Amino acid sequence: MVLAGGSGQRIGLATPKQLLKIAGKTILEHTLTVFERAERVDEVIVMMNPGFVGDAEAIVRKAGLTKVSRILPGGTSRNATTQLALDALSHYAVDNTNVLFHDAVRPMLSQRIIDDCVTALETHHAVDVAIPSSDTIIEVDDDLITDVPIRSRLRRGQTPQAFRLSTIRAAYAKAWQDAGFTATDDCSVVLRYTPQVPIHVVTGEEQNMKVTQPVDIFIADKLFQLATSATPEYSEEDYIRELSGKTVVVFGGSYGIGAGVADLAEKHGARVFRYSRSATRTNVANPDDVAGALEQAHSATGRIDFVVNTAGVLRIGRLDQTDPEQIEETLRVNYLAPVNIARACFPYLTRTGGQLLLYTSSSYTRGRAEYSLYSSTKAATVNLTQALADEWSEDGVRINCINPERTQTPMRTKAFGQEPAGSLLSSEEVARTSVDVLLSGLTGHVIDVRREDPVRNGEQI
Fold first, then answer.
1. Parallel/antiparallel/unpaired status of strands 199-203 and 126-132
2. What are phi and psi of 448, to 5 degrees?
3. pTM of the model
4. Domain ranges of the chain
5. Are strands 144-147 and 355-359 parallel, antiparallel or unpaired?
6. Which family does it belong to (predicted)?
7. How are beta strands 139-141 and 144-147 bridged, if at all?
8. Residue 418: pLDDT band by 50, 70, 90 thresholds?
9. Which superfamily, per CATH, for 2-210?
10. Nearest partner of 160 among 231, 208, 193, 212, judged by Cα
């Protein structure tokens, strides 16, 4: 049971927060997709804010979420919504049915937590999910501390909360007999009204956060970026099956990452068209050149499935000492080119449900001295990716952005010279991840590609 009855008032929105978009999809779709992929979940029912049932139905229909059997209006309180959910399960046998209640606005639930909850129900009748509290919790009355509980015994509750259907039904049956009944979660109902039932606790995860406050939207968006640094990995057989007969257009395909992507796609059966200023005299900053390249590829194969743009320029130096022509070139190649490519490739990609793949740099998160233009245009590319993922979602066209750690490419060598062996990613590693992303269902994501753990010391480009 996905509980999606929130109104969004706490974050000052007219639209429920579960319908906000993060990483190219609504929060609700992200959450439902998690359960769609859960092998041990058989059916999903959504309890939706009554005024937005139609919106939820459209999301489910468009995303092809086959496990969602019903979308029902929720109640005016958490307790009322849970009871309506239980009513919707009245045709199930209570002795062999398990039910998980999950907040729709916890879109980063892991498969591990779901599996642990279902496994726990084999030996327990009620299961909660919680994580240790890293903060000291205080009890307050009239702004004065009345108690400081021992932190080692405290946990922060999450969802899903899982029950055998007979257990949660019995607890609510007793609860409604209490004139003063109110509760903010379902485990507390079991604890209060059927205290003889032990409630097992499964370890949750910090990423399984609830989007409640305005800042949570930004945090969740960044967490999605971190989560997608581990993209789906495909086998050689997967590559052949997914790439054979497809058309791939690579701008900047003569060397470095672009050449790696082109080589990998071509090796596994794709028709690859490589364009660059050096090999085909294609200037990505020229809209006519871009349009001509796409038309050539489409005329030859009758389709375009993937468009990749790795072209870029990196000029080192203070802005006040940079030649105006170099400023113009950087802006045209690093930002206007992705814009022009996006505009030109969109009609082709709508016919195939394809994807545009762009590239940024870790410097997009913080502008750095000596390459202000480069880092700022890369930040613009990230925003372009996220905006177009939203714009194109209804058309079935995906767009993502690769954020590689410092990578051994001719462009980098030209800017920085030779660097210590082993300190850089290889362009082949980045190319492999790029193709994995092309074959995935991701959209609106910024995918980190790193040699080691993201938390590292030192400057990165």
1. parallel
2. -75, 135
3. 0.71
4. 2-210, 236-449
5. unpaired
6. Belongs to the IspD/TarI cytidylyltransferase family. IspD subfamily. Belongs to the short-chain dehydrogenases/reductases (SDR) family.
7. antiparallel
8. low
9. Spore Coat Polysaccharide Biosynthesis Protein SpsA; Chain A (3.90.550.10)
10. 208
